[in-house]
Amino acid sequence: MTIPSEFPQDSKDKRGVFLLTLESLCDTVEMMLVAVRVMWGGVCARFPTVRIGFLESNGGWVAPWLDRMDRHCDDQGCNDSGLQTRPSELCQRHCGISFAPVERSPGVLAEAIGPHTMLWATDSPHPEGFFPRAPALIAKQPGLSAATKRGIFVGGAQAFYGLPYTRPPWPGLSPRVPRETPVGAMQRRRTAGDATGDDRGVERHISH
User: Fold this and answer.
1) Which is it for the CA torsion 73, 74, 75, 80, positive or negative?
2) 191 and 111 both lie in a single domain
């Protein structure tokens, strides 16, 4: 691929080429670099309970990138990091990988590192997002078993965020009432007149 050294002079064309380049390269390539630094840098070894999310960068790059890192991890002549655990194993233990519902790679990713590592997104409220069609698009993915779909729909989020098991809110089930957020609680208490109104009060309410 050749990236032009100079963008077209017309402002509209320039913006289009620039945005396409950014959207095609930046998010994914940045995440690939982060994965290398996290894995080779020993972050998971130093923080055994850490959870690391690779979000908004698609997921199709993960399986081949882990294959490449595993290969160099196994090559003792190349591995000068001291890392003994393969990056693919670290990913299975510590990582959540978000993918877009229109990607063709969920089956490959589920086979490579397990559906329990997978997260899905609607990208709402962005106009190019997939709300509310995301679940239906994922369900139509060819080659995914029922167990894999369940892992993708529920298991990944449960494992990554440490959520308790609950039955999915479809079909015909009422969604759970969301828990009040700390900021919401703070605003409610201030409305009720029990907040101090200073920074210590804000910290107190958020901490609760």
Assistant:
1) positive
2) no
Q: How many separate domains does the chain show?
A: 2
37 Rama class: left (phi>0) / alpha (psi -120 to 50) / beta: alpha
Percent of the chain exceeding pLDDT 90 equals 39
Query: Is there a contact between 103 and 141 (Cβ–Cβ < 8 Å)?
Result: no
Task: Kindly state whether residues 155 and 191 are assigned to the same domain.
Answer: no
Distances from the Cα of 170 to the Cα of 125, 131, 137, 179, angstroms: 22, 16, 15, 20
Asked whether the predicted pLDDT for residue 175 surpasses 70, the reply is: no
Please tell me whether residues 61 and 156 are part of one structural domain: yes
Are residues 147 and 192 both part of a single domain?
no
Structure tokens at 158: 């449960």
- Give this prediction's pTM: 0.68
Q: What is the pLDDT of residues 66-77, one digit of tens each?
A: 999 999 999 988
